[in-house]
Amino acid sequence: GHVTGVQTCALPISAQGASVMFSRQAADAEPLLRGSLATARKLKARGLIAQVQNDLGVLLSGTGDKAGAVAALAESASLAVKHGSPELAARAGRNLADARMNAGDFPAARKELDAALRAVRSLPEGHERAFLLLGMFPSRTLRRVCLLLALTMLGALCESWARPGPPPQIDAGFRELVLV
Known about the structure:
Oligomer: single chain
């Protein structure tokens, strides 16, 4: 949607909170994200609220606040769907499924993962869709697939390395000197 002047202030604060969060400084990130959330709520900017709630939910999940993470991520996923942002709906849905699994609510986690997968399938073909689909796999399965692919590529490299090249050809005409 349309970004107003006040939203341009909330977006960098939210981004700063997310970057601080990923630098493992949760105590510093939470106030920044909550401040961005308050600004977004004042503006009634559903897309921005959904983005900040997703970031806040990931942060709360990492700090062990399971109930807070589930609440934030549920609001994020719901608002992303209402706002018409399937990419954010997929990310928030995947994060919500993880938070529900951490909380021990496995049937709800499965339901959220199915909803996130539907959101991913609605995206156009491209790298965002591919990365979101890769994120849907459990990490053990993804590691196995990547390892199998790496071993296959290593085998192909070894095969081409050991294969002899073409035989040498002498490109010399009549009465030309060839040094060997």
